[in-house]
Amino acid sequence: MIQAVETNHDAGDVATAAGHGAGATSRTIHVRVLRQDAPGQESYWERHAIPYEPNMNVISILQRIAATARAEDGRSVAPVAWDCNCLEEVCGSCTMLVNGRTRMACTALVDRLLEDNSEEIELRPMSKFPVVRDLVVDRRRVFRGLERVEAWVPVDGSYDHGPGPRISPEDQEDAYPLSTCMSCGCCLEACPQYTKIEVVQREGESAEAFDARRKAAFDRGFVGAHAISQAMLFNAHPTGRMIADERLAALTGEGGIQMCGNAQNCVAVCPKHIPLTRSIARAGRAATVWAIKKLFDR
Amino acid sequence: MNQPEPSRSFLSRHQFLIYRLFSLSGLIPVGAFLVVHLLTNASVLGGPESFQSRVDMIHSLGPLLVPIEIAFIFLPMLFHAAVGFAIIAGGLPNVGSYPYVGNVRYTLQRATGMIAFAFIIGHLIQLHWLGAPLRGSEGGFDPHHATSTAAIAIRPLLVSILYAIGVLSTVFHFSNGLWTLGITWGLWTSPAAMRRANWVSIAVGVVLAAAGLGAIGGLRTVDVAKARGVEDRMDEVKRMLKGEMPIEEGRSPAVRGTSNSSLPNAGPVSSEGT
Prior knowledge:
Chain A is α+β, with helices and mostly antiparallel strands. Chain A has helices spanning 2-20, 58-68, 110-116, 140-148, 169-179, 186-190, 207-220, 225-235, 244-251, 265-269, 276-297, and strands spanning 28-36, 43-51, 95-98, 101-104, 121-124, 131-133, 136-137. Chain A has two domains: 2-133, Beta-grasp domain (Ubiquitin-like (UB roll)), CATH 3.10.20; 139-297, Orthogonal Bundle (Fumarate Reductase Iron-sulfur Protein, Chain B, domain 2). The N and C termini of chain A lie far apart (63 Å). By secondary structure, chain B is mainly alpha-helical. Chain B has a single domain (11-241), classed as 3 helical TM bundles of succinate and fumarate reductases (Up-down Bundle), CATH 1.20.1300. In chain B, 72% of the residues lie in helices and 0% in strands. The radius of gyration of chain B is 23 Å and the shape is elongated. At the A-B interface, helix 7, helix 10 and helix 11 of A face helix 2, helix 6 and helix 9 of B.
């Protein structure tokens, strides 16, 4: 409903823009979407044609597709499902493969995409996470990764701990870029070492048992660049450092830092330009020191 | 309750240690051996004498040589290869979608690792004593005739080309691996430090590639008959020094030459032996 209202708004704006826009020919944008109706089902390609408007992004394309709910051949189809929220590249929910590369749909500007390929825009769900429907994927492994490395400052308690230690401006500057991570999963999608783990609920399996089995499967897999970077962020924090050893134990456990293959795609695709490879190298150094300490202090 | 206990094998419990040993083994001893091996081979550019004397130095280890080879070269290499193949199997290269330099290097690191493995197997079958049962009595590397036997083996154009590919793959794998090893162990952490380290690893790669290709070129251009003569004379001297062969004053060595001058010097040492 809200989408329809927005669409009308946009259409109004565009009509005005097109009115005095130069060369306001009615161009058509061809969009190819890899769809999947439900988890575990076959995926299929579907083509859509929508009228060009200036200043569109991939989200507005998906809104137009939802508004018409028709494929290019005129068939009436279910609207394409997708995830989005903030529309300003801070929430991390609209990650998808646009023209084969992982990125946020909200900042994938159609005019830029058409410069690269005027024929067609291709949309696919992320390939490293189980598809829920169409472009919506189940990214809970991203958050399980953060749980594994305890990516938080442990300050829970019933009494006042007083003010925390001061952090120097230098340390703040070092930490700030890492804190901008929005768990979008781009680093994981582009990582050749991070491979898909899809666990299917067995017949008669309780939700709890299924969840435990899925978590165990996630915990054997690579934890991922985002979690390594968050572990370094909180290990650098004066209060977060109190459980530094637990984070390093997780990072040197199965699926930890050692799974990194140094392809450095993570840092290349990160929409927030987080120095992920610096975090990974720092984690490598911390793991080296920690492993040696563990060996001799035991 | 019916929660399945995740089967944690020995390998998965010690994954970190195994991967770190894998990383280390690429440098020490396998990488260190590669450097020594390529530089030794490049000495053929200084003539058959210089190559032969370096080979003699290695073989002066005598009965220790084989255990050292097995413990410090073959077993670490096998370990590195086994873990390496497991790592390759676990990855999903995507250089088509993400053609970044780092990703190309990631893919090449795996490709060259596999090429290097195949090349080393072929190299051992062709030249090493390990491969003797597989290649029959013909060919092989004779440590007493280092230059001539290696030159005969490598002379055919196809063999030379395969050796060039094998050597370049191995050198890339080593020097790129040097760079990633520094990240893995946390030696260089900032992007600027990684760039600097990258130049060092490129320099190492260029030097080793020059040494490796130089050795191939040297073996292709050396005069085999002449080299054989030099080796025979050197072999004779060695045997005389060991007392395996009496010193015959004025005995003409296998090939005409001026090397008789070295025989009188050998005299006193030899007489001690007899």
